[in-house]
Design a protein that fits this description.
Layout (H helix, E strand, L loop, with lengths): L1 H30 L6 E4 L4 E8 L4 E6 L2 E6 L3 E4 L20 H6 L17 H14 L1
Antiparallel strand pairs: 1-2, 1-5, 2-3, 3-4
């Protein structure tokens, strides 16, 4: 019984410590916001910081020409634009193609030759088509 009680107290202490660390990180982030920093709000609005008023806990951001004023609690995090990779730059598994391979690529023909099966000659194809039409 005592072991369970000690474990519960330890878990509660660890959780409160973690929450305090997260609160401190958010407080430091908001206090260190400088004009020009790109941020995203909890509503998904992306913009650059224009001014920060620590006394009233307000921030003004510029989102594509529109000045918007938010409270500190509405700021989610600093925004970093995700990297965009075009479909032509990756293979079917999502792995990037080598730079040299893109320039050296040659359009593929409809027929693919393998070492064990040579491609059919045009004459062979004509014979096969003729045989198929005669049997019908």
């Amino acid at each position: 019984m005592i072991v369970i009680l000690v474990a519960l107290i330890a878990m509660m202490w660890w959780q409160s410590r973690k929450a305090k660390q997260q609160q401190q990180e958010r407080r430091d982030f908001r206090e260190n916001l400088q004009p020009g920093t790109e941020i995203i709000t909890i509503g998904g609005i992306i913009g650059k910081v224009v001014s920060v008023d620590v006394e009233y806990e307000e921030i003004v951001i510029d989102s594509e020409g529109s000045l918007l004023r938010f409270g500190f609690n509405a700021i989610s995090r600093e925004y970093t634009r995700p990297a965009f990779v075009h479909d032509d730059e990756v293979d079917e598994n999502g792995n990037p193609l080598p730079q040299d391979a893109e320039q050296d690529q040659v359009p593929m023909d409809d027929t693919i030759e393998t070492a064990s099966e040579p491609a059919a000659d045009v004459e062979d194809v004509d014979v096969i088509e003729t045989a198929d039409t005669e049997s019908k």
